[in-house]
Amino acid sequence: MNNMIEIKDLTFEYNREEDGKNIPALSGVDLNIEKGSFTAVIGHNGSGKSTLAKNMNALLLPSGGKVYVNGYDTADESKLWHIRQAAGMVFQNPDNQLVSAIVEDDIAFGPENLGIEPGEIKKRVKESLQAVGMYDYRKKAPHLLSGGQKQRIAIAGVIAMRPECIIFDEPTAMLDPYGRKEVMDTIRKLNKEEGITIILITHFMDEAALADRIVVIDEGKIALDGTPKSVFVQVEKLRKIGLEVPIVTEIAFRLRNKGIHVPEDIISLEEMVNYLCQ
Amino acid sequence: MLRDITLGQYYPGESLIHKLDPRIKILATFIFIIELFLITEFIQYLWILLFLGMVIIISGVPLKFMLKGLQPLMIIIILTFGINIFMTKGEVLWTLGPLNITREGLHQALFMGSRLILLIIGSSVLTLTTKPIKLTDGIEKLLNPFKKIGLPAHELAMMMTIALRFIPTLLEETDKIMKAQMARGADFESGNLLKRAKSLIPLLVPLFISAFRRADELAMAMEARCYRGGENRTRMHELEFHYKDIIAFLVVLCLLGIIVWQRLR
Fold this sequence. Notes:
A: Rossmann fold, B: 2 domains
């Protein structure tokens, strides 16, 4: 079993309160996430990307189709806690996901819920805080930390549950550029060094470019799926969906339109500089 | 300015009193209050003063902080004193217009006043030497036996934990909303009481909406971290009784013994 998450023909409908009608947020989504991979999910506001994320750890249950996490069906209530332990989630607002007024107590919250014995919890708290580089702050109160630091605490709180996969739901949307970098560095480190499967929901293209694979969601369907290079070359399709492309891809696209033959697979600034200066 | 508020009135320290188990401290405070109410004679306050003095010296908390707790309750103390001094019948010492001050009244007022002051200082020792979070843990553990009769001990403690976590966040937010509304011409400072209360509406409405949104998101985040109530939950810091806790408890019980014995005699 190489797939961390398997999504088969997923449909999800919201019940709109004004008229009681069911509004589809996702329809017919098929998606497999490989173990150890780093996948970015992009899409504009209201495209259904956040709904997709919440379906991945049973916070929302499919209206139609199936979602399997580590082989467990999310609709199977007896496996609920296995699923949420295996697929942790970090949310957008760093303030609204920390439970305790002391950093280390907050990290312990997840393991405590799993009923792990105190000695092991202490060990995990220490390791998790070290993994995100926040061990020195273990006695601090969360409200005294910066946004980026709070988000790293939230990540440590999830790592302490020893998940195989972490779903990030726009973790950098409320952070300043420095905080964004802190969080993105932490996410990449977890993927490369700890081998944790990462699913990053974002609307920042430069963040998505760091992933191994990009899935573009539009109107509740998968519009594009592939490596960053293969997705970003489709500049016109992305524009039609209402997404910006990274600045480098944009420049390459314009240069090509002017008749300069820039190779299509250039997506990083470095590659661009190397090409232009050769 | 709102960033460095401290909750409760915890005075950081490493003293023996600080290190005692919160459960012992809560129970001891209760017993201390019972002792105060069992006392019938002035002379017995000496025992209490001796005990309290000892505790305060060991705790290393400056007396100034202990007395600070009296300030907000000064009105109640003065009221108690006043009612007792004027309303007790007996041998008249002085007369102030229609009011008589009696010997018994003076005695009763001083007696009640001292009781109230000692009560407040005694309970301040608990909050000054115990972190709010420890206090919460202690309350949860003490209430555990009452779970059988349907008391939601874990839920109460979780609510207190979350409140402690979010009070600074919400205060910060209040500050932010206040400034935003002031920038748009809201006036929070002038006018009579009614006008001022009304001017709080543009502050309270956004604050409540935001608090509910936060609660919703927090609930989801807690569920994502496998929270399912108090059952099968372990704690990182288990509370443990040590010798010092038992000794401290025995000291408080001794004091209770002395006072009960003197009362029965």
